[in-house]
Design goal:
Elements (H helix, E strand, L loop, with lengths): L15 H6 L1 H4 L14 H30 L3 H20 L9 H7 L12 H24 L3 H5 L6 H30 L11 H8 L6 H8 L14
Helix pairs in contact: 3-4, 3-6, 4-8, 8-9
Pfam families: Trp_dioxygenase
Protein name: Tryptophan 2,3-dioxygenase
InterPro entries: Trp/Indoleamine_2_3_dOase-like, Trp_2_3_dOase
Length: 236
């Protein structure tokens, strides 16, 4: 018997795929050809809009991981952080599309952007806030369990708290790599003005590259005793 593929979900669209994914709305979020002042506006919007979607997912994973830490479910929190970090990796990789945007093309389409700036990204602001909440949850965990970071990093790498800390470092590093790539692309296409000019977007973005959400996790690496892993008892 022939299967009936008629849509059963509510919403707009000729298929359930279109209705569930809301493709009519999604594909109507970009400026129409008659509205564009340059053809590469489509490239520019698609990269940034998809970035906001990946950030939305990453923030959701980060927020859930924070809740799992507070509930003592550290392995689950680690897995969620790995998913969030992968989202940032994909955000970074799609910046490669801007390699096809010349400085002249960007200057031509820039008037369409008004005074818009990536610093105004709601996804980025939410990622910053979620990262701070994650760090606070981890600090509470260490305090509640009486864990010293230096001893933790000299002990068993299989320890769930150690693995969680490493997942946080991975998130932090992925964010940093995204910033670096963003900065390099911005300089390449001339979208952020000359580096070194006080208050210029390029100068402000360069200052953010070395920012770390969890500096204590990076600092402990620099303070490890020589000789590799040791037991916490050896350091008491």
């Amino acid at each position: 018997m022939k299967r009936d593929y008629s849509p059963v979900l509510p919403g707009e669209g000729d298929t359930d795929y279109a209705r569930y994914m809301r493709t009519d709305t999604l594909l109507d979020l970009q400026r129409r050809p008659e509205e564009r002042i340059h053809r590469d506006e489509l490239l520019f919007q698609v990269v940034h809009q998809s970035t906001e979607l990946w950030l939305k997912l990453a923030v959701a994973e980060l927020s859930e991981a924070t809740a799992r830490i507070d509930d003592g479910q550290l392995s689950q929190a680690e897995l969620l952080l790995n998913r969030a970090a992968l989202g940032i990796r994909l955000v970074t990789e799609q910046l490669e599309m801007f390699r096809h945007l010349t400085p002249a093309d960007f200057q031509a389409l820039q008037p369409a952007l008004g005074n818009g700036s990536g610093a105004e990204s709601p996804g980025w602001k939410q990622a910053q806030a979620a990262s701070r909440r994650l760090g606070q949850a981890f600090a509470r965990l260490l305090a509640e369990r009486g864990i010293d970071l230096l001893k933790l990093y000299c002990a068993d790498p299989a320890d769930p708290v150690y693995r969680l800390a490493e997942a946080m470092v991975e998130w932090d590093e992925r964010i940093s790599l995204w910033r670096v790539r963003h900065y390099k692309i911005a300089i390449r296409i001339g979208s952020h003005g000359p580096l070194g000019t006080p208050g210029s977007p390029a100068t402000m973005l360069a200052k953010l590259i070395d920012h770390r959400f969890f500096p204590e996790l990076w600092e402990v690496r620099a303070n490890l005793p020589r000789g590799g892993h040791t037991s916490p008892a050896d350091m008491s």
